[in-house]
């Protein structure tokens, strides 16, 4: 069931187009992510949903009714700010109660709901402290509690994990998912960090230059990128541009590379091969299309990364193997992958490919 | 370090230069002798004489009326102006103009106001001094509050709106408490400035209702009496107290953040 329906939303700031005819559907109860590099328009979209910005054109509907007609303070939408924006002159309790007091709820109910939400985020003992007396992780929990206690239809989270150090991050990540499950509120997280998006979200919209490039589940985005931008942005990828032929993708200087059946023959397309899909074999006579020389081997414990130079290709190729690499720097190897393990992306669809 | 002890001499000379006159004044206010040049023993006589002096009492009351009134007015108006400037304009010119009365020579403001009052046929009195002091007091409050606003996290106000607060509630519950240290500092500044302001008051007061600085000036014209010393010492005490209270308040509100 669709909760939020964004249709043809555009927003310009002077010469800059922040959003260019964006259309998206966000479903009831899902954990949705808006992912993209800075300046891709994700924050503008978030602010439009929260009510701090108005789009120039387009419509946003919540449950079918016009959301844009409602001022920010009357929307059933709450935002967890990147800076948390906790009120410094109020205790944790007062911060959390603030939103409920604005609804003019009875005091007893406010007290009960505040206590319950503080219990959920594990801050009961800190209820009387002021924000500056809390750690970063605790502050975030207060910010989260303050937004969740309002029981919004939609909860927006602006870069929720960016201000936390690594250990607290992974804790909070689990906590966010658990909480979303518990309260059953639709979450929309805005982030430039793909790991954050991939690990949290049910579905991700990848944005670039004010447009939505692709909306998909994390695994589908990873395995089947549909635009060159997504292929380059999500995870590490080896990218080749060439012409589609019957046997594969014909790339200047490299020959025909194995590629899945895809776009119309004769068209230009981009081939994306994940490092972990690449096989490295010892050189034998008459075997394999591609040969390369090992430039560098890095061991990361669980995986090893092998950088390869290819004659006729200006970029190094990256291969990943489980555990210790079986090749050495300087060795000649045959590079191969299964056609179905690679993704073929039409290049005409959108502009821009990340550098 | 010891060898360069003489380097401290200019330091102490500067402090001597700054505070010697004040120390002399305070000491002389307790002098039994009428002559300001010889010490005749400790006495509180001049303070007693001061309390009996009617013109000084009226002057003090007038000054307090003007100082309190103009402080309240300039704090309210200055705060609103600062918020308005920060939120609703991008004009650097308007920004600069708002604090200009704080820098303008008093004489310019004084003559300007006098001409203006005459033009609108306003009879002079305490009210005209009060309005005049509000003009520059407001400029100081605006400057201080504006600086505080510049350092304020705007997402606090957005968070308040997001949580369901109408704009007025947000202003009262979030914006004002955040600005409080600036507002208090501005108000105390306006108060102390008004308390001893002479030039503008001299031009805009009615002769029948002088403020304290004007009274003192008219007394001093016939020579400095120890009475004046006593009065100045009292004023000094008031200023000191205000400054200390201001610092405490700022530190207190900072600590609460």
Describe the structure in your own words:
The complex is a heterodimer of chains A (355) and B (257). Chain A has helices at 42-50, 92-102, 107-120, 136-148, 166-183, 194-200, 218-223, 228-233, and strands spanning 2-13, 16-27, 31-35, 57-62, 65-66, 77-80, 154-158, 186-191, 203-208, 211-216, 238-244, 249-251, 255-257, 268-273, 279-282, 290-299, 303-310, 317-322, 332-336, 343-346. Chain A has 355 residues and is an alpha+beta fold. Chain A has 8 helices and 20 strands. The two termini of chain A are 38 Å apart. A 6-stranded mixed β-sheet of chain A has the order 6-7-8-3-9-10, sandwiched between helices. Helix content of chain A is 24%, strand content 34%. With 257 residues, chain B is mostly helical. Chain B has 11 helices and no strands. Chain B is globular and about 70 Å long. The two termini of chain B are 40 Å apart. The relative contact order of chain B is 0.14. The chains are: A alpha+beta (355), B mainly alpha (257). The interface between A and B is medium-sized, with 25 and 19 residues.
Task: Report the sheet with the most strands of chain B, covering strand number, pairing sense and barrel closure.
Answer: none
N- to C-terminal distance of chain B: 40 Å
The number of helical runs of chain A is 8
Instruction: Count all strands of chain A and give the number.
Output: 20
- Note the quaternary state here: heterodimer
**Lateral strand order in the biggest sheet of chain A:** 6-7-8-3-9-10
User: What is the helix/strand order of chain B?
Assistant: HHHHHHHHHHH
Helix content of chain B: over 70%
Low-confidence stretches of chain A: 349-355
Strand content of chain A: 25-35%
The sequence of SSEs of chain A as H and E is EEEHEEEHHHEHEHEEHHEEEEEEEEEE
Please state the average pLDDT score of chain B: 88
SSE topology sketch:
The complex is a heterodimer of chains A (355) and B (257).
Chain A: E1 2-13, E2 16-27, E3 31-35, H1 42-50, E4 57-62, E5 65-66, E6 77-80, H2 92-102, H3 107-120, H4 136-148, E7 154-158, H5 166-183, E8 186-191, H6 194-200, E9 203-208, E10 211-216, H7 218-223, H8 228-233, E11 238-244, E12 249-251, E13 255-257, E14 268-273, E15 279-282, E16 290-299, E17 303-310, E18 317-322, E19 332-336, E20 343-346
Parallel strand pairs in A: 3-8, 3-9, 6-7, 7-8
Antiparallel strand pairs in A: 1-2, 1-4, 4-5, 9-10, 11-12, 11-14, 12-13, 14-20, 15-19, 16-17, 16-19, 17-18
Helix pairs in contact in A: 2-3, 2-4, 3-4
Chain B: H1 8-29, H2 45-52, H3 54-88, H4 92-103, H5 106-119, H6 126-150, H7 155-162, H8 167-195, H9 199-204, H10 212-220, H11 226-256
